[in-house]
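Milestone 3.1: sequence recovery, worked example.
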């Protein structure tokens, strides 16, 4: 009770304190109290949060430690279990590996043996193939040599003909060029002589005209000097009067006079120039006419030569085209023949490869006896063998025998082939015999089954059980000669029968 009283006293003290405060102080006091409570609450929350964080970090650390510890222990257990399992697997694998190695060793030995035999067969086939290829190459080289010699002879003939024709054409060209050079030289000489004659005539004519003009000029000058003196006096007087009357027109006249003199000089120069041009034109026309006649004659000759050379060129071109067509046809024929030979050799090569592959496949199917003794022993005597060897060594007389003589290396092959063929024929014969026997046994079995069956259909037909006077009407086709169904010829008497009927009691 005392504490309650104390609390009540405190509350009353606070109330009295609040009662003593003013309204503003009371509000300020309450605000400060609320702030203090909020700070305390915030501190408690921060302390609780920090405590929880520390606890969480400690738990995480313990969890990691325990997890690592568990993982380490599990690793130890799993390593132990895995090591035992791996040891067992290794033992199994080692045993398996030893078995496989043993099997592989046996396979390798058999393959090595097969490889050695295959290499021997391959070397034999290769030698035979190389001999055939060498013979074919020699034959082809002989053909090529013959064709080369024929081509060389024909080319030499054509080259000699071409050289002779070329020499003739060159000689003819040189002669014609010499003739043309002589003609040009003669024309130049003739032209030079004509030019010198014309120049001399022109010089003499010019001197005559010049002398004549000088004489006429001298006479006219004497005559005109007197007239000029009289006229000069009159002219001076008139000029004086005229100058006095027309001074201005005089100046104009002087200027016109100067222009007239200048124009007269130009006219005279142009006239002389025209005269020279007309003379030059006349000379050039005459020369051009002469050159035209000469050029027409030369052109006619050159045209004839051109026609002759063109005809000769066409003939040579025709011959060259014929030669080219013939050579092209021969080259085409040679190319086709070489391509056919290449294809034939390729087919033979493919056939050889196919034979080798078939030999490898057949090798796998050979028996142990065939692998040990691949070639059967000859049934001939020594004398017969010697006769056969002597016949083989003799030179062949016929082409077919010569070709067969080249294939003597395949004798062992033909032995094996004939052995296989004989085995096949024997197996086919045995198969036919077994089929016939099987058919006969089927017939007997059917007759027997029909005999032990009792029905209307069976009784209406021949029945082996229907015996009259120890005979039946059924033909039993049993081959008694076959040892498998033949009855024994020896008589066998049982011991009980001997004891019962023969021996005394």
């Amino acid at each position: 009770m005392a504490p309650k009283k104390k609390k009540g006293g405190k509350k009353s003290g606070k109330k009295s304190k609040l009662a003593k405060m003013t309204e503003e102080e009371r509000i300020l006091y309450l605000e400060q109290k609320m702030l203090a409570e909020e700070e305390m609450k915030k501190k408690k929350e921060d302390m609780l949060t920090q405590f929880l964080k520390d606890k969480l970090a400690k738990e995480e650390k313990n969890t990691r430690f325990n997890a690592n510890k568990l993982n380490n222990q599990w690793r130890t257990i799993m390593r132990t279990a895995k090591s035992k399992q791996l040891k067992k697997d290794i033992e199994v694998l080692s045993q398996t590996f030893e078995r496989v190695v043993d099997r592989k060793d046996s396979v390798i030995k058999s393959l090595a043996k097969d490889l050695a035999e295959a290499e021997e067969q391959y070397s034999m086939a290769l030698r035979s193939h190389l001999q055939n290829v060498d013979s074919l190459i020699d034959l082809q080289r002989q053909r090529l040599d013959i064709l080369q010699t024929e081509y060389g002879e024909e080319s030499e003939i054509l080259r000699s003909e071409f050289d002779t024709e070329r020499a003739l054409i060159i000689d003819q060209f040189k002669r014609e060029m010499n003739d043309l050079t002589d003609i040009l030289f003669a024309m130049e000489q003739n032209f030079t002589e004509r030019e010198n004659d014309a120049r001399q005539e022109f010089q003499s004519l010019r001197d005559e005209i010049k002398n004549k003009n000088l004489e006429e000029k001298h006479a006219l000058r004497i005559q005109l000097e007197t007239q000029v003196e009289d006229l000069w006096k009159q002219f001076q007087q008139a000029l004086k009067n005229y100058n006095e009357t027309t001074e201005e027109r005089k100046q104009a006249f002087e200027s016109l006079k100067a222009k007239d003199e200048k124009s007269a000089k130009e006219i005279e120069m142009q006239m002389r120039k025209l005269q020279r041009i007309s003379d030059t034109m006349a000379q050039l026309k005459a020369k051009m006419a002469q050159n035209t006649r000469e050029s027409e004659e030369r052109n006619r000759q050159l045209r004839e030569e051109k026609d002759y050379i063109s005809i000769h060129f066409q003939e040579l071109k025709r011959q060259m085209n014929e030669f080219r067509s013939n050579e092209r046809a021969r080259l085409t024929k040679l190319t086709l023949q070489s391509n056919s030979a290449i294809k034939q050799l390729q087919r033979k090569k493919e056939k050889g490869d196919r034979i080798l592959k078939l030999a490898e496949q057949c090798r796998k199917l050979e028996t142990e006896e065939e692998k040990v003794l691949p070639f059967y022993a000859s049934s001939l005597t020594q004398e017969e063998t010697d006769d056969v060897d002597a016949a083989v060594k003799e030179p062949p007389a016929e082409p077919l025998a010569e070709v067969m003589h080249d294939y003597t290396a395949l004798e062992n092959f033909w032995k094996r082939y004939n052995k296989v063929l004989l085995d096949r024929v024997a197996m086919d014969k045995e198969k036919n015999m077994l089929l016939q026997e099987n058919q006969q046994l089927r017939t007997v079995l059917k007759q027997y089954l029909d005999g032990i069956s009792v029905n209307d259909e069976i009784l209406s037909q021949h029945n082996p059980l229907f015996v009259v006077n120890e005979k039946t009407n059924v033909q039993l086709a049993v081959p008694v000669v076959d040892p498998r169904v033949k009855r024994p010829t020896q008589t066998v008497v049982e011991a009980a029968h001997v004891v019962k009927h023969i021996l005394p009691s």
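Confidence is low (pLDDT under 50) at residues 1-11, 477-496. The chain is about 85% helix and 0% strand.
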